[in-house]
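INFO  loader      accepted 1 record
INFO  loader      residues=249
INFO  predictor   begin
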Amino acid sequence: MACRDVTKGARVASSLGAGVEVRAIDLGDLRSVRAFAADMGEIDVLVNNAGVMATPRGQTADGFELQIGTNHLGHFALTCLLMERISDRVVTMSSQAHRMGHVDVDDLNWERRRYQRWGAYAQSKLANLLFTYELGRRLAASASGRRAMAAHPGYAATNLQAHTDSFQDQMMKVGNQFVAQSAQMGALPALYAATVPDMATGTYVGPSGRFELRGYPRVVQSSRRSHDEAMARALWDRSEELTATSLAT
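INFO  predictor   done
INFO  writer      dumping tokens
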């Protein structure tokens, strides 16, 4: 279990029986990412699941805008650092919010634009898909047999919705009670993407219900913008530059 709060992680691990390790990692701090990666051995599946949503303007330890830094750049760096030790696949968690996203490669950190919390979140979730599809193409070119998939949880009731520091927290609290599915159901698309044996690289998994808000997992389609290969390459190059990491396949 890779988590920021190892005390909370240890409490959960104690209920899961033997064979569970808890290790500290903060995806908003590249020093933490590098330390975690340096201490890891062989890995079957990496699930990139850390996330913050619609937060007030903030920065990571490395000076990145908080949402792109945590949701995309931290995962990008971790995946690059671990890739040589991953034997099967990488699964990255996106969101239906990616459909509202626009990636500005020259201003990922909202230094030139007026900050918009939902715009920044949507950008980071679109970046997750652009990264996944580009990673899949690069892994396919290396003929390694490893794959990249993405998933989204639909609308799941978690504490992700409680950090906007605005009236929206209360609105989403009501939504969690009356509209959202459980966190357990929201976890199923990522588990499906991580475990189905014959899944093709580039597969995107989400809930099967109306508008992909709820339901059991199935293969779904992402936006046309998420398949922009030129944008994906540009984002990849910029991510390498910002994180000082590159993919070794």
